[in-house]
Design brief:
Length: 246
């Protein structure tokens, strides 16, 4: 929504250390999405937060605001368009716009700034296709939980079954950050192909509440996706057979 009216409420959530890290992360990311310079001081204050996911979120939000202020107008028309109409925490990469191998190298290079790697991430998403999906899925093995969670989110947007195995492995991994497992579950629900339903059912009673609830939501997403496909197929068959409803 990117409504500045929400800023004080989001700041309150970000500042509340009694909140779950995932909730504080969402508040910080929303502040970056709104993109107002008035939140720079607040975000800067949390760059050294005890919760690394919150600290990295604020780092990305600050970089996005800086990009909006300094580089957006120079890069418009030169970066790939977002086919999903989402407000992302970073714009796509300016260079190597369609070079999957180069973008993959940037994505997986953990010595680079997180914002630069996020830009490669969203470029790969915008390019699409199996090769991009496989490259992105490799990012599920990177060190940053925030980065892994964003990879899973993007794979859910792309809805490509080439990453089902990697998402499954991440969801079932002992000790994986619940925020990452949550996004893996929702991605499997969005993909809704092959063994996705079976995987989600396996974790629908997980001991982590956020994972359990995500799997239940993902199962509903899966059923919605597949029921729509069935209805669409039935409609096409009727048209082919010359059957119309009264």
């Amino acid at each position: 929504m990117q409504d500045k009216y929400a800023i004080p409420f989001l700041i309150r959530v970000l500042e509340d250390r009694n909140q779950e890290p995932m909730v504080r992360h969402e508040a910080g990311e929303a502040l970056g999405a709104i993109g107002s310079p008035q939140v720079i001081d607040v975000l800067t204050k949390f760059l050294k937060d005890d919760q690394i996911e919150v600290a990295e979120t604020c780092e990305l939000a600050l970089e996005r605001i800086k990009w909006l202020q300094e580089r957006r107008k120079h890069e418009e028309g030169k970066i790939s368009s977002n086919p999903y109409c989402s407000v992302d925490p970073a714009p796509p990469d300016l260079s190597s716009m369609d070079d999957v191998d180069s973008l993959r190298k940037t994505l997986l290079d953990e010595s680079l700034p997180l914002f630069k790697r996020y830009r490669a991430l969203f470029s790969l998403r915008n390019i699409g296709g199996t090769k991009s999906v496989v490259a992105l899925a490799e990012g599920l093995g990177c060190n940053s939980a925030l980065f892994r969670h964003e990879i899973a989110y993007v794979l859910g947007q792309m809805q490509h079954e080439a990453c089902v195995t990697q998402l499954k492995e991440c969801l079932e991994k002992n000790g994986e950050n619940p925020m990452v497992r949550h996004e893996c579950a929702e991605a499997l629900g969005a993909i809704a192909k092959g063994e996705c339903r079976e995987i989600l059912e396996q974790f629908a009673q997980d001991k982590e509440r956020v994972v359990k609830e995500s799997c239940l939501v993902a199962l509903d997403m899966h059923d919605y996706q597949t029921s729509n496909e069935l209805e669409y197929t039935k409609t096409i068959d009727k048209i082919k057979n010359g059957v119309t409803s009264n």
